[in-house]
Amino acid sequence: MKANTWTKSRIPQPTLVRHHGTTKTRESGGNLKRGETPLTEISNEPTIEESKSDNALQCSTVRGWKTVKPNIALKASKDKEEPFRKVKERLETQESKIEQAEQTTKSYEEQQQQYQQQMDILLKDIKYLEEQETSTKESINSLEKELILAMRELETFEQNRKQKEEQLDELKVQISVIQGQIQVEETKTQSIQSRIEEQRAMLSSLYEEELSLQKQIQSERNRNQDELYKMEEMNTTETNLETEITKMKEQKEEHAKLVLEQENEREETIQQLERLKEDFYRTEIEIHQKEEEERAIEKEIADLDLQGEQYPQRKNELEQEIAHLKDNLNVVKVNIDQLKASISQRENEYKAQKNALEDLRQSSERALSTEKTNLASMQSQLEQLNEKNKQIQHAIKKKQDDAEYFNSALDQQRTLLVSLRNKMSALELRLDEERNIHLIEQQKLNALQERMQTQQSIIDELKEQRRNNGAIQEELQRKVYEMRPNMQVFCKLEPNDITDESTADSVQHLSLDMRNSELVARKMRGLEEVSSSIFPFDQIFDTDATHDEIFRHCTAFIDQIWKTRNVCIFSYAIDTHQRQLFFDANQGLVFLTLLHLLETLNVTSQCKPAFVVEFFRVWEDKMEDIFHSTWDDDIKDTVQENTRTDTTSNLTSIEISNAKQLQERLVTRMSSQHWKSQQGHFVFRINIKDEASPSFNMQSGITFIHLQAPDIQDKKTLQYQETEKNFVSLLHLLTQLANREKTGFSNSPYCILPNKLFECLSNNPKLLSILQLPKSTRNIQSTLLLLNLGQKLNCCEIVQRKAAFHR
């Protein structure tokens, strides 16, 4: 209000001129005489006084006009006309100024109309572009679906093609294997045929040999008959030899028995010799032990000699033992000599017997060998003839078997060759069919690829068109935002807060209804309308509007943060449960804003920024850090400081760089706090911080401020003059925001919140206000106060380096 009166005092007020032509004639008044001119009444006081003095002068001079000379009268009339001339000139200048003011107002109205027409044209263009964009999106989606289907068909075709290629490869491998087998079998058949021919030649030669052999056999048979006679004679001689041989064998057996007996005796002597050797070894060991004992005794004797005559008895005993041992040793040596002599004697006897037997055996073996040689020579001749006959018959049979085997093998190879040729022809037919199918599939694939290329070119064109449309839309939105004010006001209707229906007819209540972008407030007494008023808003949301729907209308303001502009979103409400619009854990505007900013960062940003958030409450002259305090009823850790120290104090901040941190660090804290039922104004601030380069920290941010409007019917909220301290001061604060002034409240003891707001609104801010009002309420005064506040906010326009009011 102060700023309004100040601006009105600065505007130069034009002096409104009212002129009425009140000419008085002699017929009407009869007071004017000849030569007098009618006077004009002027609203300006100095001109009126001048006219009065002139009238008085005129009246004084008019009374005696007949006595005045004509030239004096003419001069007097000229003197009288000079002030009127001046007045007329002033009137003309005032009228020209009024006409200029009217022209300026007309030009301003024409400019406003042109701006409105441009706004309408731009909005139509935006709607057309949005429709075109939706159509392009739909066409892109349909093309993408077709492309996905084509890709799926192509994938299935590729899979089928790969399977068929694998089958073709397998068939080719099988064909190559079969061809190799055929070549091997052909080489085998050729080798078999060559071998058959060789065998045939061999058979012919064998047949000739067989004929010659038969002739030889006949001649040999004749010879054999002659030789049989000789054989009979030889048999008789053989029987005689056999008798002699049997005799010789008997003699040989007797000699063998003697040899066995001698060998047994020899073994016994050898065993005795071994025993004697063992005894000899034992005696040598005993002798060695005795010698060692003798040496030990000699050492002891030497020791005793050294010791003198201390142990004479021990020395005697040892000498006796040595003598006894020497006697035993002599006896053992004698026994060994006797055993050696007996062993040598027995060895000589054994050698004599062995020599006699050996001579006898050699003579008998010579006789037997001569007889055996004669018999063996005759038997060998006979066996040679029999074997030669058998070999010839066996060779003939073998050749016949080989011929049969080769014939059967040749038949098997021929049947196998025929089957392999049939299989190869079937595989070639199958290979031709697969090649035809492959050609058809390749043609389909080429057609699909051409279709995909055409669709891709269409998609690229649509994407390019979408980019161009996006650039045009951004340009149009920029122009719209340049033409629109930087402060907008939304209204959110809440459900009715009337609970007692019995007294609804007798008590007044306020009913709010939507009509396009206007809100009609009707003061009702029962069903009768007492009065009504209209409040225009930029956007009105009904009771069934969701938080997502409201957020979609707020994204244009939120995206201004990327243009290095501060964004401040206010909310005005009476009830504490209405804070859920901002601070609901998973659906509030704060949560949706952070999700939206994180999504835009993931899509567009190349750096790695993070969001730093702060949350505090202000009530009366106290400020409370919600992220730092416990908010228990027993421990109320509030910070009571004055404005200057409080604005410079650091708040507890939470850093968020992804959706997981948003859920873990922020949502859990906000849902676990018991701040929902607390009185006061709540401020939630979002700033940008770059993790990669600390030097890149944008000075812009988003501030959500939920202001609690006073409930005038509730006396608790009015204690300590709360209305004057917390709410009316905010009205002045918003007025100061329009004028970019900060001097009005900086020294006030209850302006913690305004000074905090000025920290958020330092760089070309965008302001959005959301009024939360019940659709029907008995709290008429508070609701009207909020509606009037919305109208005041809707008239403010904040422009960088310049501010002005528009009603």
TrEMBL record:
Q: Which GO terms describe its biological process?
A: microtubule-based movement
The record ties this protein, via Gene3D superfamilies, to: Kinesin motor domain
Keyword Coiled coil part of the UniProt annotation? yes
Protein name, as recorded? Kinesin motor domain-containing protein
For whether the record's keyword set contains Nucleotidyltransferase, the answer is no
Q: Where, if anywhere, are coiled coils annotated?
A: 84-181, 231-479
* Kinesin motor domain mapped to chain residues: 484-802
By its UniProt entry, which SMART domains does this protein fall under?
A: KISc
**Keywords of the record:** Coiled coil
Compositionally biased residues, Polar residues: 1-12
Q: Which organism is it from?
A: Galdieria yellowstonensis
Renumbered to this chain, region (Disordered) spans 1-55
Q: InterPro entries per the record?
A: Kinesin_motor_dom (IPR001752), Kinesin_motor_dom_sf (IPR036961), P-loop_NTPase (IPR027417), Vik1/Cik1_MT-bd (IPR031852)
- Highest taxon in the source lineage: Eukaryota
Could you state a single Gene Ontology molecular function term? ATP binding
